[in-house]
């Protein structure tokens, strides 16, 4: 397993070790002690999967009172996955990172609490699976608009975007109520 810091040092890109043989391949998608030792501190309470078609963009989402760190991966298709540091007081406030996750590169992204998260689907279909460090609370869902001009995420182009009405009506980071943004807590 290889773990690398992204340009946002708390967001980690993880490449599992793949054991290939004549039958196919094997890899560990999560190993508590190995991941913890290598800087993925979260204990996970919920596993999710979403299925999406080409051009779907989900995000940018975060949770506040019940913050979720997420360990995300793609088991079918290709997505461009994005994390944004939206912690008030962070030296990287408003900065983003993006990684292509696919069924063939097996990469994972670790997104800590306090970051907004989203992805766009670049293949015909995509299955997106992720572990979360807290349970889903429907009244604790927040978000930032995907095309916030200040954050300026360089999303790969698709022919036709497919975004939920809920996600289309999210505020920009500047419009968001600062009381409803996570706070930076240096270690
Ligand atoms: C996230 C979630 C949704 N749901 C329900 C609520 C709703 O009826 C339906 C679809 O929810 P959403 O539209 O919010 O699904 P989606 O847009 O896929 O939401 C996800 O987006 C990515 C980018 C994230 O980072 C996740 O944390 C999560 O916010 O599923 C759950 O029951 N449990 C959950 O944990």
Automatic annotation (TrEMBL):
Keyword Membrane among UniProt keywords? no
Q: Catalytic positions?
A: 61 (proton acceptor), 130 (proton donor)
Q: Name one Pfam family in it.
A: dTDP_sugar_isom
Q: Does the keyword Protease apply?
A: no
State the Gene Ontology terms under molecular function.
Answer: dTDP-4-dehydrorhamnose 3,5-epimerase activity
Q: Name one GO cellular component term.
A: cytosol
Show which residues form the site (Participates in a stacking interaction with the thymidine ring of dTDP-4-oxo-6-deoxyglucose): 136
**Which GO BP terms, alphabetically?**
dTDP-rhamnose biosynthetic process; polysaccharide biosynthetic process
Q: Which UniProt keywords apply?
A: Isomerase
Annotated metabolic or biological route of this protein: Carbohydrate biosynthesis; dTDP-L-rhamnose biosynthesis
Which reaction(s) does its UniProt entry say it catalyses?
dTDP-4-dehydro-6-deoxy-alpha-D-glucose = dTDP-4-dehydro-beta-L-rhamnose
Looking up InterPro entries in the UniProt record yields: RmlC-like, RmlC-like_jellyroll, RmlC_Cupin_sf
Functional note: Catalyzes the epimerization of the C3' and C5'positions of dTDP-6-deoxy-D-xylo-4-hexulose, forming dTDP-6-deoxy-L-lyxo-4-hexulose.
Q: How does it assemble?
A: Homodimer.
> According to its UniProt record, which protein family does this protein belong to?
Belongs to the dTDP-4-dehydrorhamnose 3,5-epimerase family.
Report what the protein is called: dTDP-4-dehydrorhamnose 3,5-epimerase
The protein's organism comes out as Spartinivicinus marinus
């Amino acid at each position: 397993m290889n773990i690398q810091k992204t340009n946002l040092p708390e967001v980690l890109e993880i490449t599992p070790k793949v054991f290939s043989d004549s039958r196919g391949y094997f890899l560990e998608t999560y190993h508590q002690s190995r991941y913890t030792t290598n800087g993925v501190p979260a204990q996970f309470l919920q596993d999710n999967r979403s299925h999406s078609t080409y051009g779907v963009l989900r995000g940018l989402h975060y949770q506040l009172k019940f913050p979720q760190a997420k360990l995300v991966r793609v088991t079918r298709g290709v997505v461009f996955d994005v994390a944004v540091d939206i912690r008030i007081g962070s030296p990287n406030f408003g900065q983003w990172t993006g990684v292509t996750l696919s069924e063939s590169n097996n990469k994972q992204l670790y997104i800590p609490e306090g970051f907004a998260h989203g992805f766009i689907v670049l293949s015909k279909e995509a299955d997106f699976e992720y572990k979360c460090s807290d349970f889903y609370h429907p009244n604790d869902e927040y978000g930032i608009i995907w095309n916030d001009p200040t954050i300026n995420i360089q999303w790969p182009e698709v022919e036709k975007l497919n975004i939920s009405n809920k996600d289309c009506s999210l505020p920009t980071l500047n419009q968001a109520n600062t009381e409803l943004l996570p706070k930076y807590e240096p270690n």
